[in-house]
Structures are given as C-alpha cells and as structure tokens.
Amino acid sequence: MIYNRVALIGLGLIASSMCHAMRRGNLVGEIVGTARSEETRQIARDDDLCDRVTETAAEAVIDADLVVLCVPVGAMATLAAEIAPHLRPGATVTDVGSVKRAVMDAVGPHVPDDVHFIPGHPIAGTEKSGPRAGFAELFDNRFHLLVPRPGTDAAAVMRLRQLWEGMGANVEEMDADHHDLVLAVTSHAPHLIAYTMVGVADDLRRVTDSEVVRYSAAGFRDFTRIAASDPVMWRDVFLTNKDATLEILGRFTEELFALQRAIRTGDGAHLQNYFTRTRAIRRGIVEAGQDTDAPDFGRGRTR
Amino acid sequence: MIYNRVALIGLGLIASSMCHAMRRGNLVGEIVGTARSEETRQIARDDDLCDRVTETAAEAVIDADLVVLCVPVGAMATLAAEIAPHLRPGATVTDVGSVKRAVMDAVGPHVPDDVHFIPGHPIAGTEKSGPRAGFAELFDNRFHLLVPRPGTDAAAVMRLRQLWEGMGANVEEMDADHHDLVLAVTSHAPHLIAYTMVGVADDLRRVTDSEVVRYSAAGFRDFTRIAASDPVMWRDVFLTNKDATLEILGRFTEELFALQRAIRTGDGAHLQNYFTRTRAIRRGIVEAGQDTDAPDFGRGRTR
C-alpha cells in the first residue's frame, strides 16, 4: 500500500481512471471520493467507483494520506480554502490540472505548513467526461509531470511518484512555468485551434452542417474529437494559461500567414518542404510509444 | 463484372485500396496498373497488387473500359495528354483527386469526344502513402463524390457509380466548385492548420522536440497524424484549390482572433459557449457513422 487513504475531489475522467488504476495495482487502502453534483456522487455509488462517497470535500479529506484535486482549474482556490482546515498533518495534496502556475498560486496559500503540496499533471485523457469515462489503462506509458515547489519533502515526492508509476505512468519533474509553456504547445494551442476550426465549419452559410458531417472523414473529424472535450475545463485552461497560450498562438498565426502567402503566390517548393519536415515529428511520437502507428489511429478497423 | 478492364495510373494509397476492394467484390475482369517509379511497379508485381503491371500509362489504358487517374493533381494534365491518343472509344476516364475544378480544367481538354470523363473523389484516406498502404475496407461507408459535367452520358455515370458502391462507398453527385469549397472546410484548411501547428512545435527554441514528442498525448499527436500525409499530394491540393482554401483560412483566422481576444480579456462565457457549441458537430459525425465513438478513436486499447 502506497497510501492508506486517498481522497479524490471531483469524479470526472481523470479521477475515475485513477480509481480503476489504483485498484488494478492494489496501490491504496481506501479510496474516498466526492463530487459537487449529487448525480455524479450517485453514479459513483451505483458503480462502486470508490470505496466510499462523501457529500462534501471537507468530509472526504478527513484522515486521508493523499488528497487529489480533480476539478477544473478555476475551481481550485475555493476548494482549497474549503478543505484546508480538515487536512491531516503530514498528508500530501496534489492535483491533476492542465495548468500548473495558476494552480500553485490558487492552492498554495491555503495549504497548511504541515501538509505537503505537490502539483501534478497526467499527460493523458480522452474527449469523454464524467465518472463513467474512466478506465484503468488511461495512464499506461503516458507521462505524469510533477511540479514540486523548492524545498518540498523528498520522501513525500517519492511516495507520490510511486503511486503514479503504479498506475502505469512515467513520472518526470518540471518547473511550473516551463510546464505551462510546453503544454501550451502540445495541448492548449492545438485545442483552441481545433475548437476554432470546428466552430468555423459550423458557422458557414455556403456549406451545410450535413455536408460537413458527411465528408468529415477527409481530415476534419480528427479536429471534432478534440473539440468535443469538456468546455468548462478548457475555458479554465485558457483563462489560467493566458500568456503561454497567446504566445504560441502568435507564433502559429505568423507561420500560418507565411503558408497562406506561399499558397497565394504559388510557391510549391515552400509548401512541399514544410510538409516534408512535419513528417519527422510524427515518426518520433510513434517511436516513443506515444501514439499508434496503425493507419488512421486504427479507427474501427480490424486489420 | 461492372468493367472488363480497369487501368489504374499511379499506385498509391487510393489505387492500391481500389485493387483490394475491386477484388473483394469481384467487380472487374482485369486490373492493369502502372506507376511512374520502377520501385512502385516492382512492389505491385511482387505483391500481385494488380493482374498486370505496365511500364507506361499509355500502355496501361489500351482497351481499358475504365481509366482511373490516381496521381497528384499537379500531374494530371501531362498524364491526360500522354494517355489521350490511346483511349478506347466508349471508355470512361475518372480520377480520385482531392480538387475537382482544377482536374476538370487540366484533364477535360485532352479527353476525346468519344470518351466519357467523369471526375470523382473518394472521401477516405489515411496518413500512409504508397502501394502497400491500401486495404479493401478503405471506402466502406465513406462517401464518394462524382462531379459529372453537364451532358455526361447517364449510363456511363451509373456504371461508375456501381463500381464505387461495389467498393463499399456511398456515392453522391456534386458541382465541382461546391465540392472544392466543401472540401476546403472538411479537409484542406484542417490539413494546412495541422501542418502549421506541427511546424511551429518543431521550430520553438524554448521547448525541445523531445518534450513535444513525450507530451504529445495531450492533444498534439492528433495533429501530427494529419501532418504526416503525403507532401506532394498536399502541395498540389493547396496550389489548385487556392481560392476556397484561402477563403476558409480567412474565416478561421477571424474566428481565432476573436477567441484570442476572449482569452486576453478573460471572457470565460464566450469561451465556454463556443466550446459547448462545437460538441454537437462531433455527435453528428458519430451518429452518421463517419467516426468511431470509442474514446480517443479507440487508439490501441482493448476495452
């Protein structure tokens, strides 16, 4: 047992996957869970997702060795204030938010001195949300980034690392600001771009939604998967990782304009060179085991 | 048998999939294939991809009832000039290019009066290229768009339609200019955007390629699949569907700027509304059978 009692606050895709993954590895003694909505708590009870479901976050954290904040980033400060008086001395508080500087600023001031606060972020997910979206394999061979503050107790960090490794993840440590920049590239900017493209397609007068749907297999449908992700979670990501996201979007726009100009002027060599270069990154991702090499993601085909 | 002899010019992903699909349905008498590169022709021979492989396109089309041009759009005009004198009277010429107005303009003038020319475009593909990338199921439940010119022989159109239906596709007819606009939305603009984002990630100094690769599961890797598509084919798509692509990219940029402004000003309501609206299109695509509902495209997971 790495922890005797783990409290999960918020029971969406990540928390429910943690339940399954912690049980698969027999990693913890008791899993206590709670969620703001009664509907979610009832599903958790019906499905035996956790060992115990409490009505409030304050109640959930009592005597927990590890408290995991699994709520949208914008809800973290209020939640931290609510649970702080009930945290057990020596406990560890972590989170799974997609932005790290904002979480440190929102949660940090509320955490008592005798509690370890070690922010984290699993680089894994799907476009599905809610307590029934989770599955034990979500973190397998994915990275989990820990963002410990200077001076954090090394033993507490090691224990949390072991939990994530037990759930299948490769754990790395990173500085919060660098994390937010890297994720702006690998996640936040791509999500905003996908949302934008899907919104544009939905909004055109000369092309019907039915046409967009029927002919989506030509590439567009990949964007719609990302653009089906949880709206509140993503609203909070952009509001709390504003600077890095805007920086990357600025670079993106600059590059897009250069490619548009190449199209307009008929500069085929520029286009072909650019499109050849981008193939290498795909190869790197497949070789690193971070995506399948099956054509079209192996979508619904059996070969 | 829908056709006695079909000639495929160019043996990449689409043509090789047609070979497998035509054989699966026992749809044609003989499949003749050719490709510009000797390497490709040798693979076709080694794999028995076609019934017969010829050295030249001119040779391949002799006595063919159907000739399918499966080369990049930019190569169509030269190819059409080369095969025109060798086409059998009463034969049909079609293509599988991603742009239709440019193909009509490039190929049309070369086609003799006694030959039917019916441009077409299968809305199906993967990021893989070449004669070994094909598989029989590629067109199953995907759409195939035929773009017959006014006055085209109805029986010839019907016969070509039957071939594509036999290969599993749903066939629809569409005007060439509308096709090019619809595909700019569902395919060409998304591809350019994906290429751009991947290029930006590759080019940042403050984030290493290794970080991009390792943390790509957060969304970015979806873009890299699209950005691994054939560079020459895509160069030609953008050069030949310039106006529609630039129009859609203009709309995209406008919308992206509005969302960037919402991020900058902290307008969470605008973001959340936008992100909620885009979920509906995803549902439509899944309900229309144009994508899997499995989380994360069902990528490499067994559940």
Please provide a written account of the structure.
Chain A has 303 residues and is α/β, with parallel strands linked by helices. The first copy, chain A, has two domains: 172 residues, NAD(P)-binding Rossmann-like Domain (Rossmann fold, 3-Layer(aba) Sandwich), CATH 3.40.50.720; 89 residues, 6-phosphogluconate dehydrogenase C-terminal like domain (6-phosphogluconate dehydrogenase C-terminal fold), CATH 1.10.3660.10. Chain A has twelve helices and nine strands. A six-stranded parallel beta sheet of chain A has the order 3-2-1-4-5-6. The first copy, chain A, has a three-stranded mixed beta sheet with strand order 7-8-9, covered by helices on one side. The longest helix of chain A has 28 residues. The model of chain A has no long low-confidence stretch (mean pLDDT 96). Chains A and B meet through helix 7, helix 8, helix 9, helix 10 and helix 11 of A and helix 7, helix 8, helix 9, helix 10 and helix 11 of B.
**CATH uppermost class of the largest domain in chain A:** Alpha Beta
Mean pLDDT figure of chain A: 96
Oligomerization state of this entry? homodimer
**Cα shape of chain A:** globular
**Major sheet attributes of chain A:** 6 strands, parallel
Number of separate helices of chain A: 12
Determine the CATH superfamily of the largest domain in chain A. NAD(P)-binding Rossmann-like Domain
